[in-house]
Amino acid sequence: MSIYKILFSALIILNSNLSFSQKIKTTLNSRVDSTTSDEKNLYNAQWQGFDIGFMSTNKSAQWSNKVIQSTSIGFNIFEHKIPLFKQYIGITTGLGFNFKTYTFGDDYSFMSTDSTIDLVTGNPSLYDASATVKYSTLNQGFFQIPLLLDFSTKKSQKKSISIAVGVVGGIRLFTNHRLQGKYSNGDKFNNIIRDNKYFHANLLSLDGIVRVAYGPIGLFGTYSLNGLFKKDAVEKISPICIGVSFNVQKTGSKKNQQDNEDIDIIESSFSSLK
């Protein structure tokens, strides 16, 4: 074989390798852009996760509750952060469920009229003045939607300090009053009043909220802006709540991580063909 044929064959092979390498790089760049785009969409916010807090009615002795036994438990199932300045500042919304339990003094229970609600002694709903009450609770459930202004110091939530302020609106799902104890003859009772109209509770809730977190763990505080009961039913009861939040951290999928590793290996292999 002549030297010219050898050189000609070598040029064809080299050109084929370069063309193939260029196609691979184009595909790789597309995959990198796609992965980068996926990562950019992973905006961590201060909502999705689990909350638990303790509540106070912040009122007179009649309406004061047992704070340690009065809990707010939140299951925040979805969040979406709209970026205003990259991942650092954004507006967060989402969906969640919240369940509140107010525990009052053992000798208190609710008494309602057509237009008012009151917390009184003597347990009139038991029809037994000598009954002993062990627990007296007001329980509520809400479907909630937040609107928060969210600040983060880093793109990744892992070591980021985050602050969120805003409001949380809710729709009441249920209200009930539970009394547990013993009658004078020793029989136990567990009475539950489930009539929503009985309590004159607000159908809609609106709470101011502040959330501060380091990584996925944080603290939060809420204050009821429109009160627990309807305006004319009783004096305004605006509970406050302070608690701990455990937020879900969004991360890139294992597939994207493996794609990045594959890209690095293939790119290093084809760089030797240049």
Fold and architecture overview:
By secondary structure, the protein is an alpha+beta fold. The chain folds into 2 domains: 1-42 and 252-274; 46-251, Porin, CATH 2.40.160. It has 3 helices and 11 strands. It has helices spanning 3-40, 196-199, 254-271, and strands at 49-56, 71-85, 89-104, 108-112, 117-121, 132-152, 161-182, 188-193, 204-214, 217-224, 240-247. The strands form 2 sheets. An 8-stranded antiparallel β-barrel has the order 1-2-3-6-7-9-10-11. α1 runs antiparallel to α3. It is elongated, with a radius of gyration of 30 Å. 24% of the residues are buried.
Give the SSE map.
Layout: H1 3-40, E1 49-56, E2 71-85, E3 89-104, E4 108-112, E5 117-121, E6 132-152, E7 161-182, E8 188-193, H2 196-199, E9 204-214, E10 217-224, E11 240-247, H3 254-271
Helix pairs in contact: 1-3
Keywords, separated by commas or semicolons:
274 residues; alpha+beta; Porin; 2 domains; eight-stranded antiparallel β-barrel; two-stranded antiparallel sheet; 3 helices; 11 strands
